[in-house]
Amino acid sequence: MYRGGLSRGRIAELTGAPALTVGYHLGVACAADPGLRTAHEAAVGGKDRQVTARGLGRMKQLLAMVQETGRFPSLTADDVSERTLAAWLRRRRREADAGTLAPAFRDGLDVLPGWRGRPRAAADEARWQDRLAALAAYRAAGRDWPRHKATVAGEEHWLGVWLHTQRFKLRRGELGAAKMDALDAAVPGWRAGRQRGRKSGGRS
User: Fold this and answer.
1) Domain check: are 68 and 99 in the same one?
2) Which residue among 76, 96, 116 closes a domain?
3) Which residues, at least 6 apart from 42, have a Cβ–Cβ distance to it below 8 Å?
4) Alpha helices in 45-197 (DSSP H)
5) 85/55 Cα distance (integer angstroms)
6) Which residues of the chain have pLDDT under 50?
7) What's phi and psi for 153, nearest 5 deg?
């Protein structure tokens, strides 16, 4: 079935076998028969130009790392080789989302449950967008910028803490351009915030 162009997932569906089991046996079969993967890729439309010896090497390194550590590589890791793997994986995720991922990479990475998904990152992004919408509504109601001091409570406090965090990240160069643009569009003036009621010529 694999030689005929069926993916690991499709074979699992047809046979009723667990996808991990199918992936394991395909790995063994491809190691024993180097021409098997080429035949598979030819059956699904020809060998993809994205698949290079270096790319296959990166995938093997990634599989070994995940098996050894139980986690995916991080873009913020101290180790350069781990950051390189994380960047490579990010590109494969984008290709998978766009439907352009090479079959060789797709089948190889599919042995890692959840490799395409980033549920924590998605949840964090959704939470950030919710906070932005809440801040925009708060300002639209005619209120001043929320404060983050401990003496402030309720909605003003948690919005103030969130806004303070965005300003802190901006000063440190850690706030992404997309988020800066979103803040500028939704709540203009957020970078400066309160003017503390100063008047021209007044004492600070």
Assistant:
1) yes
2) 116
3) none
4) 53-69, 80-98, 103-109, 119-140, 154-171, 177-186
5) 10
6) 46-47, 49, 197-204
7) -125, 170
